Amino acid sequence: MAMSDKRILCVGVICFDELLYCENYPVEDSVEMVVTRQLRPGGNAANNCAVLGELGVQCDLFGTLNNNSRSGSFVTEQLESYGVNLKQCEIVEGKELPMSTCIINKRNGSRTILHHSGDWPWVSYEAFLKIDLSQYTWIHLEARNFDQLKKMVKRIHAWNSEERRRIPMSLEIEHYHDHCLEMIPTADLVMVSKDFARALGYKSMSDTLDGLHGYLKPGATLVVPWGEQGAAAKSPEGVFFVPAYPPERVLDTLGAGDTFCAALLSALSDGHPLQHSLHYACQVAGAKVGMHGYRGLRDVLRERGVRFVGFNVHCGGEPLLDGCTEDKCCSQSALGENTIGCNALLQFAKPNCEYHQNLLLLLLKILHDVDQPTYITRMVCLDELLYCDSYPVEDTVLRVLDRKLSSGGNAANNCKVLAELGVKSDLFGTLNVNSTAGSLIKEELESFGVNVNQCELIEGCEIPIAISIVNEGSGSRTFLYYTEDWPEVSYEAFLNIDLSQYSWIHVEMRKNDQLKQIVQRITEWNSKRAASGKHSPVPVSLEVENNDDRCLEVMPLADFVVVSKDFARVHGYNSMPEALDGLYGRLKPGATLVVPWAEEGAAARGPEGVFFSPAFPPERVVDTLGAGDTFCAGLMLALARGRPLEQSLRFACQVAGTKVGMRGFRGLGDLLRQRGVRIE
What we know:
The protein is α/β, with parallel strands linked by helices.
């Protein structure tokens, strides 16, 4: 068969992967900065096809896809840029693709995967019936959704039983399922993962070959990749073990198994012997883990001297394939031992693909009904919430129970809560409304009634993102935060705001050199306002969440200062009374210090006295994310409406307690009324 006639069909899952590269694996209930963030198409079959595309092999992907959805259009564009044909895919309407958030520890290369598929359907047998099998020289299947898979396999067997060209069929078994063993005898080649083998009690490649080879049909091949130990195979050709080919430095092991699989299919479908194909697959997989993603894999292979099996290359002076039109390719002496032949065939245009530029584009496109911001100075970001029944153990896979996206940031959350409580608010932060992310956030915030017209507009950047792993078992919240080069609000932009329209101004303390100037401007404006004798000063509140050297300089400028438990503990205060005693002296005369302490309630000290309020927990804690921001907004509302400090403190604790009994902020006002909490 001519090279141009070779085509592989891969059947399996299509999803999209979010990759978070961190210096360390995040400790539960902590904050970890994300060094690099990327988006890629994902799913075993999709990855197989991306690699095959990089190796120059024609391939079709058969999976479920919504190419009219935002996530689907992104994945479609990316896969087609590899040369993958998606015309066989079964189209699903009204849903977004499954997503895998992958935390990659740069220190040790571990991959921790949080996967959310929701109710996304797998490909159906009815759609498979529409595919013309005659165009394929190999069919590869993922072992999943066994009711449909068995029917597909039966159709392939029926095709092969008739008098026509036979199509080899391979089956990849990654995770254990009761039906897996009964599927093994159906394939010509079976690849089983190390995890699957271990689930059956096999501790090595040799054990796995001995234990599972008896399940195969006569003449079939069993392949067992084993990570850094290489791979093994058993077939009528014999038993073979090959080593791994690690790079000088491991950069990205995600998709290494899919790369091995694709390279093996490429070699075997070209007619190469099993042992040679196994070596080639390990070489390609080793090259892949020395780079990020798959783009440019063929360049890395060339640099490592790995010969492409899909490009009429040669071994031992003999051509591996017929049809080569380049004379130089047919002479080993001319090429050298480790040189790629048919170089003309390798000169593909390398697409430019900046994944991080597309990341927020896609994530924000998947926004569902979520909760948003008020008038406060602070960066606006995207919150990606992953709800799990436990905290993921490093280097494992964990199913995500639910996934939500919302605008985030303390000030944004303050504004959402105020909106739910019936208060008009303006948000002052940096925003790119011309980007897809910014326009969607703007639309969402405005749906809460938040005015974002005061925001400082930024061009050419996407907003930061905070990935929050919410452990519904313990209530812990672990944050992975990625900001790249997003700017803070500037003093120059703040000068354009007419402060006379506000009855309260709340500022979030951040690592921003211009923040002190912003608060000083408010203070000076208030002094002139008071001196005129016509107007009362506008109260200024300051939230201090994280420690910074500038915090203690700005605190004396505010009328109300809310400090977090974390900030208090950094300064050596281990209780609310200690924090009140130790920090109150930092405030200007007549100011008020407030110290929320989570499940212990909150405390305050001001001219009215010292007060403590208990927490008001719900019957069941559902979502603690944003509880502190809710407390802050509730406190501002009560104080702005003239309630005494003691009552305001109690109200803030009630609002925060109600919030942790629900997800997000939407409907908080209604829930408070149901609980009998007076808002007005």
